[in-house]
Design a protein that fits this description.
By secondary structure, the protein is of the alpha/beta class. Among the domains are: 133 residues, 3-Layer(aba) Sandwich (Rossmann fold), CATH 3.40.50.1390; 108 residues, Alpha-Beta Complex (Hect, E3 ligase catalytic domain fold), CATH 3.90.1750; 129 residues. The chain is built from 19 helices and 14 strands. Strands 2-1-3-4 form a four-stranded parallel sheet, with helices on both faces. A hairpin with a 4-residue loop joins strand 7 and strand 8. The chain is elongated and about 100 Å long.
């Protein structure tokens, strides 16, 4: 970052030597908390004065000494400054050789770039010499700096790995925990106020209170665990938390080959709860996953299981007979008494359509269905409106940020600083545009409500009609909308209908137990014609 004032000399070189001062510390924390940059600048300015150079400009970086110099903003600005005034005689002044780089390869690349521009390096603490002996000393000195950097890194990693192996987390705080100094432990992760909210959420996910990860995220947002973004933005973070054994009181770090062990910190959930979460994440109920390799020729592939061996009945082949081809399903489960025996597709699919016809929702359940749908819909609308309020706050904050950044950019004198502000303005503007695109202000929510309710009602009341109108992927979606698990099938008796957990039956059973809901006045059951029309529209 260019922080100093520049002497903008116009015209040709007047014989002066212009000094470009470069200062570097390893991190933003050192730049903000220490005085390393100030002390480097002071020594460089004193050296410039003693040598009779003309101070041109100051450049600073807060970055590691390793890696390519082109990744540092300050050094890039130096190269641009030199290229902008090729007729000037420049020198680059550094406090110490290590400030330029602590990586031999990167240093030699930078030295070559400066030599190609006929720019010398100067330092109050090192004598640069273009003789073979001088280059040897320079290279050996840089190699020593490289060794110290790599050795320091190795030492830090060894210490951090030792802490991991002892059951401590050395990488800083995790959500729900604060790193504190504790007698007998040094720095230890201690559960904070957020931990109670997270504990409730994790246990709720393990027990099925929150069926989807997005439901868990919304709960955490409502409790203030997270505050600034929409729920969808936190899915990656909640996934990482759900998979992290740290919250069960364990420590592991596979990248450094540290296997799971009991941690020194206190977990907020039990190991049993953690394992339940992992089972849910691994989708133990993979029987509800929709296959991507389905074919319209065998629409029930992956949806039915053999009642004898409990293995999948999958698509098989076409057999020839009487000038026609006949589709067959087969069971390929090893040890099954019907292994590789054909199941006629016309029987498998025809019997399934009969199941759909028998499973239509009775008219008297309309009221209960509407009440259930309304409750879920109202919950979602409430969440959307809460999210809309959050978006409004974010929008106002971004608008203020844009205004402030614009003022700062207009008042900045350095081109580098201006470019930095321009980048920040562009990022903030994109965020604001994204928020405005998510707003529901002015949208009539009754329209999607009517469409969604008609679709749900139609699918439940006339599923056999809808099934024939859908493509194979939509059919699989409808299957898991209607049934809670894959269907057992017998080659002789067909589907075991008494054991089928059918969604419509859940409504009907509940309605029988609570007849007062069905007898509510003022709501008439929808006609068969209207339901059929909804199916045809979908």
């Amino acid at each position: 970052m260019d922080k100093g004032k520049k002497n903008n000399h116009k015209g040709k070189d007047n014989g002066a030597i212009y000094a470009l001062v470069y200062c570097r510390v390893s991190s933003d924390r050192q730049a903000n908390e220490g005085h390393g940059l100030d002390s480097q600048e002071l020594r460089c300015r004193q050296f410039i004065e003693s040598q009779g150079f003309v101070f041109d400009s100051l450049y600073q970086d807060a970055a590691s000494g390793g890696g390519n110099y082109e990744n540092r903003a300050g050094m890039n600005e130096i190269i641009k400054r030199i290229d902008k005034f090729p007729y000037r005689k420049f020198v680059v002044v550094i406090d110490d050789l290590s400030r330029l780089s602590r990586d031999t390869k990167s240093y030699l690349t930078l030295r070559e770039a400066l030599k190609n521009r006929e720019v010398e390096l100067k330092s109050p603490n090192f004598q640069f010499d273009d003789t073979p002996e001088g280059e040897l000393v320079e290279t050996v000195t840089m190699a020593q700096h490289t060794y110290h950097r790599k050795n320091n890194r190795r030492t830090v990693i060894q210490k951090m790995k030792a802490r991991l192996e002892a059951g401590y987390w050395p990488f800083g705080g995790k959500k729900g925990y604060t790193i504190m100094k504790v007698d007998g432990h040094g720095k230890l992760a201690v559960a904070n106020k957020e931990a109670e909210i997270l504990k409730e959420g994790l246990e709720g996910f393990a027990s099925g209170v929150y069926i989807r990860k997005i439901d868990l995220v919304r709960f955490l947002l409502e409790k203030g665990f997270w505050k600034t973004q929409r729920a969808e933005k936190y899915l990656d973070k909640i996934t990482a938390i759900l998979k992290d054994s740290f919250y069960a009181g364990y420590i592991e770090y596979k990248s450094w080959e540290v296997s799971r062990r009991i941690g020194q910190h206190k977990g907020i959930i039990s190991l049993e709860t953690y394992e339940l979460i992992q089972k849910r994440l691994r989708k133990v109920d993979l029987n509800q996953r929709i296959r991507l390799d389905v074919t319209p020729n065998f629409p029930l592939r992956g949806l039915i299981i053999h009642d004898v061996c409990k293995g999948h009945i999958t698509s098989g082949y076409y057999s020839n007979g009487k000038g026609k081809k006949y589709a067959k399903y087969v069971c390929h489960t090893a040890g099954c008494p019907n292994y590789n025996k054909p199941f006629a597709a016309k029987d498998v699919e025809g019997r399934f359509e009969k199941v759909l016809e028998k499973g239509v929702l009775k008219n008297e359940v309309d009221v209960l269905l509407k009440k259930t749908f309304d409750r879920v819909w109202n919950d979602e609308v409430a969440k959307i409106k809460t999210s809309e309020q959050d978006l409004g706050q974010q929008k106002r904050a971004l608008e203020k940020k844009l205004s402030d950044l614009t003022d700062l950019m207009l008042s900045a004198k350095s081109p580098a600083v201006k470019r930095n502000y321009e980048k920040q303005i562009e990022i903030a503007a994109n965020e604001l545009e994204g928020i405005e695109g998510k707003s529901i202000v002015g949208i009539d929510l009754t329209i999607p409500y009517q469409t969604a309710f008609a679709k749900v009602t139609g699918l439940l009341k006339m599923p056999h009609i809808a099934w024939k109108k859908l493509n194979v992927h939509e059919q699989h979606g409808l299957f898991f909308f209607l049934f809670l698990e894959k269907l057992p099938y017998s080659i002789t008796e067909g589907y075991q209908t008494a054991q089928i957990p059918y969604a419509a039956r859940l409504f009907e059973d509940f309605a029988v137990k609570t007849p007062q809901l069905v007898e509510m006045p003022g709501v008439k059951p929808g006609s068969k014609t209207s339901q059929l029309s909804h199916c045809s529209q979908d």
